[in-house]
Amino acid sequence: MTSVAPAHRVEPPMTHTPDPAPTSQAPTVDSAVAERPARPRLRDQIAENPLASLAVGLVLGLFTLLGTVVISLLVFALNGFDDRFDRLEARMDRLEAKVDAGFAEQGAQIAELDARLTGQIAELDARLTGQIADLDRKLTALIAHLNATAAVDAALEHRLLVPGAGTLESEGEPPG
Fold this sequence. Notes:
The protein is mainly α and 176 residues long. 69% of the residues lie in helices and 0% in strands. Helix 2 (42-48) crosses helix 3 (50-147). The N and C termini lie far apart (196 Å).
């Protein structure tokens, strides 16, 4: 006898199959977390292994020491620059003082030369004024003398360019 099992109907390939029922992913995530072993906390690990805590302490101390050294070197370098700037500023102040002193010395020499030249110019002016006054007196005397002579008459007759223009010939006529 053959038993007849209910046959599953085979659906044609193009028929619509319903979507599977949506499953929540929370159980999947919970199962993934549940599958991983729980990792012990760092504090628990250090408590269990004192050598690891000593190593961590040494590494932290070494980093602290290196950080302190780096910061100290930076501060030292920056203070070195500050000292260099101070020395440079002091040198510039000394140079400025030297330049100012040089200008003051040159100014004093120029003032001395100016005073000496002013004195010489005043002396020359006085001498020239005296010489001009002397020439003026001599010219005035010469003009007065010429007015009293026959040369004035010859000058008025425009005969000064002729040699002997101031003399009269024996006949009483001017030469010429």
